Amino acid sequence: MQDVQKEKLRLKFLGCLLGAAIGDALGARWEGRRMSRSEDIVFLAERLEQLIYTDDTHMTIGVAESLIESKGFDGEHMAQTFIKNYDAEPWRGYGPGPPRIFRMIKDGEAWYSAANRLYRGGSFGNGSAMRVAPVGLLYSRDLEKLREIAYQSSSITHSHELAREGASLQACAVALAVNTPSDEDIDKEAFLSKLQNFIPNQLYQEKLAQIKELLGEQDKAKVIAVLGNGIEAPRSVPTAIYCFLRQPQSYKDAVIYAISLGGDTDTIAAMAGAISGAYLGIDAIPPEWLAKLENKDYIESLAQKLWQLAICPA
Length: 314
Ligand code: F2R
Ligand code: MG
Ligand code: MG
Description:
- Helices cover 65% and strands 0% of the residues.
- It starts with a helix and ends with a helix.
- The chain has a single domain (3-311), classed as ADP-ribosylglycohydrolase fold, CATH 1.10.4080.10.
- It is mainly alpha-helical.
- α9 packs antiparallel against α10 (202-214).
- The chain binds ADP-ribosyl-L-arginine (F2R) and magnesium ion (2 copies).
- One magnesium ion binds next to α14.
């Protein structure tokens, strides 16, 4: 790879992880609310002194740390990293499931089986999709490997098929965004076709078809009714992809639109921000938002290390 291409890729890796963290931190202020006006979200974003992230970014950090330290996926290591991080900062607003899984693993359950004991058939919450961006970055040049690692990383806490498929779909969207040059107009239909060819699950296939139908839609209530804005993976991952594809040339517009839909705003904005940042790169993120992000330098260092691992695998 030429140096100029490597540098473009580096900016995309940084844009992805920082874009996800900012989406999470901005969206956290609106999580669980109804639809909001974009002006109100921008107004609050300007007034916040610091952007404090939640479990979405905390777990994304865990995925990145583990992939870097293990030079690839190691389930036991990733599970122990999640537990260590959770024990240090349990107040990050975790969903109900992961802390119960962490307790089971601490009590001796294997990392690959604990999640099966939660809910009926495992969790289909969006908790494994919201943290999967580092997998999308590291395996962006090998989509079958990406699928395998997305499934496995999901299985630590979310073993339901809809969660595993949701995580792999989000990782694939990040990978496609990394692989698509941002200096030419994105072919939205081609982007969606690639996702449809990738994902075997019927429900996600239908959602991706609905995204195409909704691209010009002005009525947010219709978008929410069709795609969803909830805590479940199938009611949030396609919505995040939609938020990106609706306004692919503006990170700010994609994230603000995601938050304006209400519901699981931190998570949908984190996932939309990851895809948008991976497509546009760090330079597209408003500098005043970057400057206010908690632990910005550490998240940036993780993105940098993932990039080094991706261009020069062990
Ligand atoms: N927890 C939150 N938000 C609550 C407010 C936090 C507050 N602001 C604070 O500061 O404390 N957000 C975070 O949780 C979501 C990710 O959740 P995760 O990790 O997927 O959790 P879980 O428990 O696995 O699943 C979530 C819910 O989905 C339903 N569900 C899942 N599988 C099910 C099944 N098989 N059958 C029935 N229901 C199932 C359950 O209601 C789960 O509780 C993100 O939004 C993150 O930001
Ligand atoms: Mg959260
Ligand atoms: Mg959330």
